């Protein structure tokens, strides 16, 4: 009885403190140039992004080729520790995302954390949700903190496409497993004798949607066609992405990158997939998926990438108590899902209005947009869908369109098309970039949105931390 | 009567082919239309240097090549050819589900002589020849059905683009109507897809999906279907198809897209082999033999098709085109073609719900009994988006039934008509259980339990205790009168008979039986469910054996007598198949189950007396006692061994037959007499059903007999058979048999009426 009383007293205290902070932030926000309201909610803890880092994103098969996924994850985790100087033992929990799993390190979060020198007393788990895996890792962290279970959580994601598990055929696996159980030499020999040429053909990891057997590129091409997105529009958008990324790289804006010493090779400190080309060059490429009349090409799609990212997410009070200056508040977020066949990549269209409604914002309130660019055609289709009343009414059951983000606020430092897209690492990059852009551009609200295989999507509202 | 196997050619005649009739209003429409009036069926617009020709029959759901359509098409193409600004053309339909579904059947049926029909064919040939020789490339943009004349049109074009939609099918189904592709189809197809594939297409009439058509070289390019964008999926897909086709047309003009494809190694080898007359002759002979084996020479169309192809390949295209048009004229005048066309029209009629829209849509359907029939019904229901409950009394039974449904879906997966994922989501709609839980949400219950009135009564009482008031109770009995079953019901207006045929997923017929108490809404609902399940439906009155079982029973009784008279099962089978039945009488009995046949013979014997007798019913009972219950027990008239396709006559049957031996009367025992003894009893019973009002009309009678019992499709059903063969001739034969066997062969009054007055016909 007594303990219960004590508990409720304590939680009241916490709430009171949170309220105080909220008040302070409101005052602070009032002082900034943009005098918009804060999105803090009474009774809900403020969760903040303290720091976000990533390894350079490299095209698969380049400098990282001989590593393992957890090596990349380790690099990101170590980079985070190094940059923040955060005491390892103060990390309550680690959540990591990954899509293509290395079977040796199926809980890559734990292996990477141990390898990165985190305390062996810090539990870690791995999540997967296709291209929004690290978003899922981050929102898991947000949940843990908001529920009062943790104060400091490291979230991140890693993808390593230079090496993917290629399995023996099912027939061969079955034979090999039986071989384990075979007791006599005769039984073993007869099993070995049953191996035929067909047994030897390997099984590559599926690049296709399991439910529809359609590859994502093919679906993107159909999506672009459904919204009447032309090849030229796509090439132009891809070129824009590369140009902006190059500019950001040259101006040193991609400060979330931490250098990575690859054993036996040079220190890597730059993304290597940023290649602004010309429209003429791009126009020469043949369609990659829908032949011969398709519009999605290698140049206007994101490419296979190796990379890892990590963020430190904390309760605001703890961060401040430990002397950290947070970069941003992580506010409302939503996950959506829709038809995996014809609307596979329309996640942002569905997620954006939903998250804005939750936050009580409109599209015009958002200063910084960071959308995941899976394909130029996919982004443009999403923009057209968001701009369409017909789509809102007939497919989303909404009264009217939400509107498309203005391009001058949209992915201004490049995107997945140019920087690269290590599936599970992209989410953290988007969130960190929003925080950095808000600071740089003096905005208050940022919006992250992404699509994912399976016909799913995610969006999150991020609020600048008062300067 | 449960237990028919797939019925060869006939099971392929489906309404999917969508040959449509022209309604009267259309006819009036085009007699008024003059060249001065705006065109109604074919229009075009010029996009840059490409003319987009759009086909749209405003009076119908599908486009058909009618006289009117052809006239407007000729005008439009004339304008396209004479317009210097136009460099190429795209041919597209404005209807999302249909390119061109074929020629207008009524146009052919209206012809009085072979010459008239030949003329129609020659006009078509001329028009398509002009298109083939068009100086400006024409691209056919195909979405939806492209069949018969529609396909011939498309293959006359220089280039074909088709969507990957499931609705997109290409084919030449003319053979199923006893006709042949008569607008150059038999001439162009061999050149385009090679002899073997051309024969396969024209002789089976099968529908070819777009991806297969691409592989065969029937279409050049495929276009994906699109999801919703800024417009609806269908609308946008059509636009996309048009855009791609326009690009292709320009590409051909710019020489970016070559019209002659470089031949692959396999193709070269095949061409080389085919260049020997010896090899070609071998193919003709093989195909001819195969056709003869399958049709027993009862269908002239396939043989004529072979003839046309042969003429074209061996003697040049002039001879080929001539043979095609002349054979077409001849075929159109045959009784076989008329019978098949009659069946086609009947099928269309039996795919409509003449009882209106039911008040409540069936969303949950419960099936009692997971046996062959129960699981079969579940199989055709669960993939139509209806939540299906399958209840059995034992776990073993349930397991077997569930496996049957799974296997049905999995076979589709293997054939790639659905994905494994679709199979799994479909199966998630199926609940297997041993109790009545969930029945409170059922909108319809179909019982497929053992054929015993006591069990049926027990079941109906149990079910009525748990189902909601609106729920319909349907019985899948094959012989028990529905009113007897309904006697145990508290709400007889909700009781109806739904007689499926086995195997349910293959047999297209559903016989719905109404009692005088069954409400109209109950009937409407049962028909709606049947149509959803993809069935062709006849609605008949109640009575012992309803319509189908009642017709079959005397024929099987006669078959037993024939066996007793010393004809062995193989001979009996060949006599029946020789008449046009897809399955021989002995095999049919085995498929149905000897026990079921014995059971039905006894029941109907009680109801109708000796008139329905024939052979000794004890013969069947003895067979059942010995365990010869047909295919299901491995032994019946034949011995069935798992894995073996060929079957041997059951030698142990000889002893039984010996003990029941009858001496045949040579006056009525010739092969032909035996055939007519079997058929006349069938036909007489069918006519009697019409006379008694069990049947609503002769059309349903024909459809039920052909699709449920395998009555020879070339004869068009018992009623058309009487019309063509002559009621008087049939009566004459029956009188002869009557003299020997008595009242079992007494013609019924309605048949006698028709015999007396030759102007009386069942079909106008």
From TrEMBL, chain A:
<keyword id="KW-0012">Acyltransferase</keyword>
<dbReference type="GO" id="GO:0005741">
    <property type="term" value="C:mitochondrial outer membrane"/>
</dbReference>
<keyword id="KW-1000">Mitochondrion outer membrane</keyword>
<dbReference type="InterPro" id="IPR002155">
    <property type="entry name" value="Thiolase"/>
</dbReference>
<comment type="function">
    <text>Mitochondrial trifunctional enzyme catalyzes the last three of the four reactions of the mitochondrial beta-oxidation pathway. The mitochondrial beta-oxidation pathway is the major energy-producing process in tissues and is performed through four consecutive reactions breaking down fatty acids into acetyl-CoA. Among the enzymes involved in this pathway, the trifunctional enzyme exhibits specificity for long-chain fatty acids.</text>
</comment>
<keyword id="KW-0007">Acetylation</keyword>
<comment type="subunit">
    <text>Heterotetramer of 2 alpha/HADHA and 2 beta/HADHB subunits; forms the mitochondrial trifunctional enzyme. Also purified as higher order heterooligomers including a 4 alpha/HADHA and 4 beta/HADHB heterooligomer which physiological significance remains unclear. The mitochondrial trifunctional enzyme interacts with MTLN. Interacts with RSAD2/viperin.</text>
</comment>
<dbReference type="GO" id="GO:0006635">
    <property type="term" value="P:fatty acid beta-oxidation"/>
</dbReference>
<keyword id="KW-0472">Membrane</keyword>
<comment type="pathway">
    <text>Lipid metabolism; fatty acid beta-oxidation.</text>
</comment>
<dbReference type="InterPro" id="IPR016039">
    <property type="entry name" value="Thiolase-like"/>
</dbReference>
<comment type="similarity">
    <text>Belongs to the thiolase-like superfamily. Thiolase family.</text>
</comment>
<dbReference type="GO" id="GO:0003988">
    <property type="term" value="F:acetyl-CoA C-acyltransferase activity"/>
</dbReference>
<keyword id="KW-0256">Endoplasmic reticulum</keyword>
<feature type="domain" description="Thiolase C-terminal">
    <location>
        <begin position="324"/>
        <end position="463"/>
    </location>
</feature>
<keyword id="KW-0276">Fatty acid metabolism</keyword>
<dbReference type="GO" id="GO:0005783">
    <property type="term" value="C:endoplasmic reticulum"/>
</dbReference>
<dbReference type="Pfam" id="PF02803">
    <property type="entry name" value="Thiolase_C"/>
</dbReference>
<dbReference type="GO" id="GO:0050633">
    <property type="term" value="F:acetyl-CoA C-myristoyltransferase activity"/>
</dbReference>
<protein>
    <recommendedName>
        <fullName>Trifunctional enzyme subunit beta, mitochondrial</fullName>
        <ecNumber>2.3.1.155</ecNumber>
        <ecNumber>2.3.1.16</ecNumber>
    </recommendedName>
</protein>
<dbReference type="InterPro" id="IPR020616">
    <property type="entry name" value="Thiolase_N"/>
</dbReference>
<keyword id="KW-0809">Transit peptide</keyword>
Automatic annotation (TrEMBL), chain B:
<keyword id="KW-0511">Multifunctional enzyme</keyword>
<dbReference type="GO" id="GO:0004300">
    <property type="term" value="F:enoyl-CoA hydratase activity"/>
</dbReference>
<dbReference type="GO" id="GO:0016509">
    <property type="term" value="F:long-chain (3S)-3-hydroxyacyl-CoA dehydrogenase (NAD+) activity"/>
</dbReference>
<dbReference type="InterPro" id="IPR006176">
    <property type="entry name" value="3-OHacyl-CoA_DH_NAD-bd"/>
</dbReference>
<protein>
    <recommendedName>
        <fullName>Trifunctional enzyme subunit alpha, mitochondrial</fullName>
        <ecNumber>1.1.1.211</ecNumber>
        <ecNumber>4.2.1.17</ecNumber>
    </recommendedName>
</protein>
<dbReference type="InterPro" id="IPR006108">
    <property type="entry name" value="3HC_DH_C"/>
</dbReference>
<dbReference type="Pfam" id="PF00378">
    <property type="entry name" value="ECH_1"/>
</dbReference>
<comment type="subunit">
    <text>Heterotetramer of 2 alpha/HADHA and 2 beta/HADHB subunits; forms the mitochondrial trifunctional enzyme. Also purified as higher order heterooligomers including a 4 alpha/HADHA and 4 beta/HADHB heterooligomer which physiological significance remains unclear. The mitochondrial trifunctional enzyme interacts with MTLN.</text>
</comment>
<keyword id="KW-0456">Lyase</keyword>
<dbReference type="InterPro" id="IPR008927">
    <property type="entry name" value="6-PGluconate_DH-like_C_sf"/>
</dbReference>
<dbReference type="InterPro" id="IPR018376">
    <property type="entry name" value="Enoyl-CoA_hyd/isom_CS"/>
</dbReference>
<dbReference type="InterPro" id="IPR001753">
    <property type="entry name" value="Enoyl-CoA_hydra/iso"/>
</dbReference>
<dbReference type="Pfam" id="PF02737">
    <property type="entry name" value="3HCDH_N"/>
</dbReference>
<dbReference type="GO" id="GO:0016740">
    <property type="term" value="F:transferase activity"/>
</dbReference>
<dbReference type="GO" id="GO:0070403">
    <property type="term" value="F:NAD+ binding"/>
</dbReference>
<dbReference type="InterPro" id="IPR036291">
    <property type="entry name" value="NAD(P)-bd_dom_sf"/>
</dbReference>
<comment type="similarity">
    <text>In the central section; belongs to the 3-hydroxyacyl-CoA dehydrogenase family.</text>
</comment>
<keyword id="KW-0597">Phosphoprotein</keyword>
<keyword id="KW-0808">Transferase</keyword>
<feature type="domain" description="3-hydroxyacyl-CoA dehydrogenase C-terminal">
    <location>
        <begin position="677"/>
        <end position="756"/>
    </location>
</feature>
<dbReference type="GO" id="GO:0005743">
    <property type="term" value="C:mitochondrial inner membrane"/>
</dbReference>
<keyword id="KW-0496">Mitochondrion</keyword>
């Amino acid at each position: 009885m007594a303990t219960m009383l004590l508990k409720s007293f304590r939680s009241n205290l916490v709430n009171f403190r949170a309220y105080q902070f909220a008040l302070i932030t409101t005052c602070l926000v009032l002082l900034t140039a943009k005098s918009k309201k804060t999105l803090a909610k009474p009774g809900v803890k403020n969760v903040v992004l303290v720091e976000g880092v990533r390894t350079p994103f490299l095209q698969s098969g380049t400098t990282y080729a001989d590593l393992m996924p957890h090596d990349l994850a380790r690099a990101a985790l170590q980079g985070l520790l190094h940059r923040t100087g955060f005491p390892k033992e103060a990390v309550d929990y680690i959540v990591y995302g990954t899509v293509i799993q290395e079977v040796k390190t199926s809980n890559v979060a734990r292996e990477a954390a141990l390898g990165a020198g985190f305390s062996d007393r810090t539990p870690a788990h791995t999540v997967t949700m296709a291209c929004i895996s690290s978003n899922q890792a981050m929102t898991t962290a947000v949940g843990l903190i908001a529920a009062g279970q943790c104060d400091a959580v490291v979230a991140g994601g890693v993808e390593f496409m230079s090496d993917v598990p290629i399995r023996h055929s099912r027939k061969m696996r079955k034979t090999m497993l039986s071989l384990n159980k075979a007791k006599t030499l005769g039984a073993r020999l007869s099993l070995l004798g049953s191996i035929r040429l067909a047994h030897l053909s390997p099984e590559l990891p599926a690049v296709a949607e399991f439910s529809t057997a359609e590859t994502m590129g093919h679906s993107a091409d159909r999506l672009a066609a459904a919204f009447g997105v032309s090849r030229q529009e796509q090439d132009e958008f891809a070129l824009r992405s590369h140009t902006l990324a190059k500019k950001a790289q040259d101006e040193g804006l991609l400060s979330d990158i931490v250098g990575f010493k690859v054993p036996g090779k040079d220190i890597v400190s730059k993304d290597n997939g940023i290649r602004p080309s010309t429209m003429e060059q791009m126009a020469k490429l043949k369609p990659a998926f829908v032949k011969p009349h398709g519009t999605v090409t290698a140049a206007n799609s994101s490419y296979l990438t190796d990379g890892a990212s990590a963020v430190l997410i904390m309760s605001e009070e703890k961060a401040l108590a430990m002397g950290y200056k947070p970069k941003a508040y992580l506010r409302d977020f939503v996950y959506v899902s829709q038809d995996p066949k014809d609307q596979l990549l329309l996640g942002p269209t569905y997620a954006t209005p939903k998250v804005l409604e939750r936050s009580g914002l409109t599209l015009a309130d958002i200063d910084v947009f960071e959308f995941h660019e899976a394909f130029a055609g996919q982004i443009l289709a999403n923009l057209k869908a968001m701009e369409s009343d017909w789509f809102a009414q007939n497919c989303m059951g909404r009264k009217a369109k939400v509107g498309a983000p203005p391009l001058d606020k949209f992915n201004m430092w490049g995107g997945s098309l140019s920087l690269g897209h290590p599936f599970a690492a992209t989410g953290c990059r988007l969130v960190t970039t929003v925080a950095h852009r808000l600071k740089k551009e003096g905005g208050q609200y940022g919006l992250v949105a992404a699509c994912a295989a399976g016909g799913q999507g995610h969006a999150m509202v991020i609020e600048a931390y008062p300067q | 009567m449960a237990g028919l196997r797939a019925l060869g050619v006939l099971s392929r005649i489906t309404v999917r082919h969508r040959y449509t009739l022209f309604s009267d209003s259309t006819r009036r429409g085009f007699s008024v239309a003059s060249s001065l009036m705006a065109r109604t069926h074919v229009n075009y617009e010029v996009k840059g240097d490409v003319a987009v020709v759009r086909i749209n029959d405003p009076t119908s759901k599908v486009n058909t090549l009618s006289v009117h359509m052809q006239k407007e098409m000729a005008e439009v193409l004339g304008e396209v050819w004479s317009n210097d600004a136009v460099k190429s053309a795209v041919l597209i339909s404005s209807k999302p589900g249909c390119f061109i579904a074929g020629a207008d059947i009524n146009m052919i049926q209206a012809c009085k002589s072979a010459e008239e029909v030949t003329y129609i064919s020659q006009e078509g040939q001329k028009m398509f020849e002009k298109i083939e020789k068009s100086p400006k490339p024409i691209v056919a943009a195909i979405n939806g059905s492209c069949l018969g004349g529609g396909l011939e049109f498309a293959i006359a074009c220089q280039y074909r683009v088709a969507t990957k939609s499931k609705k997109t099918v290409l084919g030449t189904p003319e053979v199923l109507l006893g006709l042949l592709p008569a607008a150059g189809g038999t001439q162009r197809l061999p050149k385009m897809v090679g002899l073997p594939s051309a024969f396969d297409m024209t002789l089976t009439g099968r529908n070819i999906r777009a991806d297969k058509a691409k592989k065969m070289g029937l279409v050049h390019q495929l276009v994906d279907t699109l999801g919703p964008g800024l417009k609806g999926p269908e609308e946008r897909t059509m636009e996309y198809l048009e855009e791609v086709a326009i690009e292709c047309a320009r590409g051909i003009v710019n020489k970016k897209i070559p019209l002659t494809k470089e031949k692959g190694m396999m193709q070269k080898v095949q061409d080389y082999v085919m260049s020997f007359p010896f090899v070609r002759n071998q193919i003709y002979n093989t195909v001819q033999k195969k056709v003869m084996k399958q049709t027993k020479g009862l269908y002239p169309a396939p043989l004529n098709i072979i003839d046309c192809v042969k003429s074209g390949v061996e003697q040049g295209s002039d001879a080929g085109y001539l043979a095609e048009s002349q054979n077409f004229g001849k075929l159109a005048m045959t009784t076989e073609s008329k019978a098949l066309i009659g069946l086609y029209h009947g099928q269309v009629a039996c795919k409509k719900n003449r009882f209106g829209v039911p008040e409540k849509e069936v969303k949950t359907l419960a099936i009692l009994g997971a046996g062959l029939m129960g699981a079969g019904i579940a199989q055709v229901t669960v993939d139509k988006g209806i939540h299906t409950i399958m209840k059995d009394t034992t776990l073993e039974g349930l397991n077997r039934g569930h496996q049957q449904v799974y296997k049905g879906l999995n076979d589709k997966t293997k054939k790639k008509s659905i994905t494994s994922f679709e199979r799994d989501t479909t199966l998630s709609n199926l609940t297997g259980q041993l109790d009545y839980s969930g029945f409170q949400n059922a909108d319809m219950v179909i019982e497929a339990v053992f054929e015993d009135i006591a069990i049926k009564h027990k079941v109906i009482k149990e079910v009525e205790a748990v189902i909601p008031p609106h729920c319909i109770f349907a019985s899948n009995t094959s012989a028990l009168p529905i009113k007897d079953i309904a006697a145990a019901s508290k709400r007889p207006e909700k009781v109806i008979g739904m007689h499926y045929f086995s195997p349910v997923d293959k047999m297209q017929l559903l016989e719905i039986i109404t009692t005088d108490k069954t409400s109209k809404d109950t009937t409407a609902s049962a028909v709606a469910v049947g149509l959803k399940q993809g069935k062709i439906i006849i609605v008949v009155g109640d009575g012992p054996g309803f319509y189908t079982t009642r017709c079959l029973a005397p024929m099987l009784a006669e078959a037993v007598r024939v066996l007793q008279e010393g004809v062995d099962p193989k001979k009996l089978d060949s006599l029946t198949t020789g008449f046009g039945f897809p399955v021989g009488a002995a095999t049919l009995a085995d498929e149905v189950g000897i026990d079921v046949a014995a059971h039905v013979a006894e029941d109907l014997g009680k109801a109708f007396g000796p008139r329905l007798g024939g052979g000794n019913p004890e013969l069947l009972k003895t067979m059942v006692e010995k365990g010869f219950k047909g295919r299901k027990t491995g032994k019946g008239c034949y011995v069935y061994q798992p894995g073996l396709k060929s079957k041997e006559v059951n030698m142990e049957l000889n002893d039984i037959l010996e003990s029941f031996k009858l001496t045949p009367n040579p006056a009525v025992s010739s092969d032909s007499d035996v055939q007519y003894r079997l058929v006349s009893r069938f036909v007489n019973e069918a006519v009697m059903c019409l006379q008694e009002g069990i049947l609503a009309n002769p059309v349903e009678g024909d459809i039920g007999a052909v699709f449920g019992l395998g009555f020879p499709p070339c004869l068009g059903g018992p009623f058309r058979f009487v019309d063509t063969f002559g009621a008087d001739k049939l009566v004459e034969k029956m009188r002869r048999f009557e003299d020997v066997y008595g009242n079992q062969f007494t013609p019924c009054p309605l048949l006698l009426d028709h015999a007396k007055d030759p102007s009386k016909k069942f079909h106008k």
